[in-house]
Amino acid sequence: MKIKKAEITSLKGSLIVGISIFIIGLILQLIFGQFPYTKLKFPVNLYVFAEVFFITLALWFLFKRKTFVKWLSSANAALASIALFTFVVAIIAIFPQGSTENKIIQFLGFNSVIYTWYYALAVAFFILVLGLSTLRRITPFRGRNIPFFINHFGLWLAMTTALLGFADKQQLTMPVHTGQLVWFAENSSKEIIELPFAIKLEKFVTEYHPPKMAILNNKGEAYKIKGDQFAEVTENKKLQIGSYNIVIDHYYHDAFFIGDSVINRPNTAGTTVAAHASVFNNNTKIAEDWLSPGNHMFPGKYIFLHPDSILVLLDPEPSYYGSEILLYTESGIEDKAETISVNKPLSAEGWTIYQHSFDYQYGKDSPYSVFSVVRDPWLPYVYSGIFLMMVGACWLIFAKVITKKTSKTKQL
After folding, report:
1. Which DSSP helix (H) or strand (E) runs through 12?
2. Alpha helix stretches (DSSP H) within 33-165
3. Where are the domains of the chain?
4. How far is residue 254's CA from residue 275's CA, in Å, rounded to a whole number?
């Protein structure tokens, strides 16, 4: 279908261009497979950034009177680029990202959209239109044009650096056993990567919420029962689950089983949570015993209320877990005590170290801690773009409020 020059600049023509870009990207995806992001590693991505920056400037300052450049900086082109980018992002939301056995989805790249040609072209179209739309408001550089330029340039900077810096981002997994000194990690391909720092795990620490109580069927599925199903268990607590009244006579956070006896032994390896419960039905006691989810040392303990109903104490959920470590770096840090926990990462030699996981089977007695080690050298530029976006947005809001107050004053 042929589209006249005048039609291209219309909203309908702009949307057709967006659809055409997606189709071209899809064809490239079917022919060549994944977009070669790995070839955009530093310094190639830096060269590409410079090219995109200067090409955008050249298009505007040298050819801004040309119909094509005028269209690229127009509202219609902006709507088309946003629509195309939104459509591609919608594919990510619709189809689970990751490995799939569906050959058609895999062939089209719907399970790994950010590695496809149509995603790369949609982003390139959006960035080009955004850059030219931003430059369109540079003259006259006064009034509301200033915060508009700052806001949109911030968005352009954040998106461009985030996408071009994607190839340089490294995310590694680093398991460290207690007392072990480790200076390497592995990537998703199980390749060993040597790091400019080392970690020695001194102690793994975890804290738990009180466990919850539930009634399960013989398949291990929870019944849909009214009352205190999944309520937290504490000392002397009274619960009602369906027709059963349950009294927690004793609760031990660090229980140790010796035969049929249970003692509370805090700060002891291998302990688990346990609760002694009395169960009543129609004011008649029908059962009493110890309940425990069990752990690597002790089997779980349950109360059978019925052949198809089992009263259980569920595994407690962690409220905190972290690692006490000693840090060593190539820049000269030795034996520096640090704590890494969830929401409290550690920065070292340009890397960020996050607490990732531990051995859930052993729980608080986990013999190792797993760290996620991330290096993203382009992240400061992404943050700079986000900061400019916020400054521009606040400026626009403030300018709008001042304009309203001024107009009201003039009317009075």
Report:
1. helix 11-32
2. 44-63, 67-72, 75-94, 103-108, 117-136, 145-164
3. 5-169+380-411, 170-207+319-375, 210-316
4. 11
